[in-house]
Amino acid sequence: MEQKYEVKKLRENAMYLQKAAQWFHQKWDIALEEYQKSIQMCIIKNKKIPQWYIVINEKEDIIAGAGVIENDFHNRKDLTPNVCALFVEEQYRKRGIAKHVLDFIKQDLKELGLKEIYLVTDHTQFYEKCGWEFLTMVMGEDNLPERMYVTKI
Q1: Which residue, among 33, 93, 83, 92, has the nearest Cα to 53 in the 3D structure?
Q2: Hey, how many other C-beta atoms are within 10 angstroms of the C-beta on 6?
Q3: Which 8-state DSSP code applies to residue 96?
């Protein structure tokens, strides 16, 4: 039996703020308050960025999520906005959910008037299969080089 899931824009679903912030915090070990603040800014709708997205199953469990922020902890402040924090729960992987989330984000940001988005990653094959192109190397906050990808939307 195929499970159903739905991508939610947090700017339109404020009731998920705390649950989503806690979920992202557990996955990425960044302060809970940082996620709360960024998601709150998304909900207020005062800017196009940040944006946050979650995927919920029929039990209302968060099974995946991602955000779009100005800068994902690298030295190229001009390469913005950045997809960040993409994560799919292990038992839901290999079902196309991550690609679906990326496609959903691209369409949503296109509707908001953006033309391209960036991300840093070491999961090169996955993003290339999803249509992202390697752009350049950037320096992360830890002073280690990271691969920057771009996609037109």
Answers
A1: 83
A2: 11
A3: S
- HSE toward the beta carbon, residue 65, CA cutoff 13 A: 27
Query: pTM of the full predicted structure?
Result: 0.94
Interval 89-147: pLDDT, tens? 999 999 999 999 999 999 999 999 999 999 999 888 999 999 999 999 999 999 999 99
* Sheet (strand 116-121) strand order: 5-9, 51-57, 62-69, 82-88, 116-121, 145-152, 133-139
- In whole angstroms, what is the distance from residue 27 CA to residue 24 CA? 5
Amino acid residing at 113: G
Pairwise CA distance, residues 90 & 138, whole Å: 29
pLDDT at 1 exceeding the cut of 60: no
How much is the mean pLDDT over the chain?
A: 94
Give the CA distances from residue 85 to residues 2, 21, 41, 58, 71, in Å, rounded to whole numbers and listed in that order.
26, 11, 17, 22, 12
Total count of residues recorded for the chain: 153
